[in-house]
Design the sequence.
């Protein structure tokens, strides 16, 4: 399936529709069924002790998969998060950026399913794993 | 099981250990195995269109259950979120506070399990449902 | 929402469409948004040690919610399980029947969401908790 | 981490502790952090229409990860399933064996986390995805 955007075009489009997250996330690489997104970790993403908060990890997983779906379906598409299941496995390094490796497992007519491994930059093993499901409303 | 805190005491303790969320959440009621927490919805919790974001719903569920575990185990206790599964079912009303109704299903020696129904104030049916699992490290 | 079946009628219909499970499950009570189903525990549902297996608990949760959706939508309806999340909290009593208390949280145009508390007969606290999501295909 | 068993030794040990599933599952390959298990699909695993049932997919995922944990920890180890989250994505081919590709993401002191992609033999894309969490009780 050919992608509807390149990285620059998708980045620009995400900034337009989600201006409030433009300082939080950056698409690093993108190909069919895969997208790598970086959380540009800042003070507002941290818990006491300096590790990235659970809600920030969820936001990274959600944004990575949303971008990956848009990359496949194009900008007329909508996708609504219906389920997110997160396993928190290790403590991220204090203050480090997070890297989300999103993999699209199904892109159906009404549902999309993906998972995301989340890494703390500089650590070999993943800090968290997310499963995400999206409802794809019919085009208007 | 007698609770280790009353609402005022637990609120004070949460403000001390999580100063960055003191303006976000308020405990409304608390009894054995149940706690109701309010998300004081503000601009920073919203998505385009004015509805509360998924990460903010996760933060509400996580904070409600964390508080409920502390209420049972007291302030020497630790609890680390290990799994969160969220179903997003309806769109919250724009700008409305959210109410999380947390229910403790298991408080074991090493694991605690709870679920949370999340309501948008003024709507009868829940907007989201969360299942939460926590690891309870041994006391130091 | 008026139910499309009573207990006897729904039981008969389930036996017709799922003859292989007629000896496994019995609907105990049913009302709007709630259904209680019993797993008639037999040797084939057990693990070593005599407790009911995880797959048998999943089957109970799935069958209870499927029946609850049919009760609301009637026999022309289809429902396809898309997600199941199970928390196993306590060991069931050896050989005891299990009781599933299913609660419908959303019955939308394309998705239904429910949860189920599973009890081992004679124990006060639940042994497991399930969240279930179903896709509702358009009527033919 | 060196494995505590080879395929033949682990198969023999599983047959000894779970005699009731010896005709259901076969370990195909095993290496550090990965194990491939086959469900030897038979009439008892099927739903009307001939596709493998959800509970049978759960059993495959659970058995594959349990075997993978034992392969790392050895036969004195115990592992208790605490959470299972399954996404059902495609209909398996009627009557075909299923293949579970299990990947160990964390093997900690008290918790293990893994995921499993489930394939219907002969289909390129996965039919289901499972996330599994296990509690590791202290050795006696």
Sequence:
């Amino acid at each position: 399936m050919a992608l509807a955007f390149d990285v620059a075009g998708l980045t620009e489009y995400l900034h337009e529709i989600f201006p409030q997250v433009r300082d939080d996330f950056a698409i690093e690489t993108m190909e069919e069924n895969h997208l790598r997104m970086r959380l540009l970790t800042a003070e507002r993403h941290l818990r006491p002790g300096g590790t990235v908060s659970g809600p920030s990890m969820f936001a990274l997983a959600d944004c990575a998969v949303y971008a990956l779906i848009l990359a496949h379906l194009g900008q007329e598409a909508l996708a609504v998060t219906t389920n997110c299941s997160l396993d928190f496995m290790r403590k991220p390094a204090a203050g480090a950026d997070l890297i989300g490796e999103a993999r699209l497992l199904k892109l159906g007519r009404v549902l999309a399913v993906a998972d995301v491994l989340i890494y703390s930059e500089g650590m070999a093993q993943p800090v968290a794993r997310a499963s995400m499901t999206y409802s794809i409303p019919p085009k208007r």
Notes: Chain C touches chain B through 15 residues (CB under 8 Å). The helical segments of chain C are 7-17, 54-73. Chain C has a mean pLDDT of 94. The radius of gyration of chain C is 14 Å.
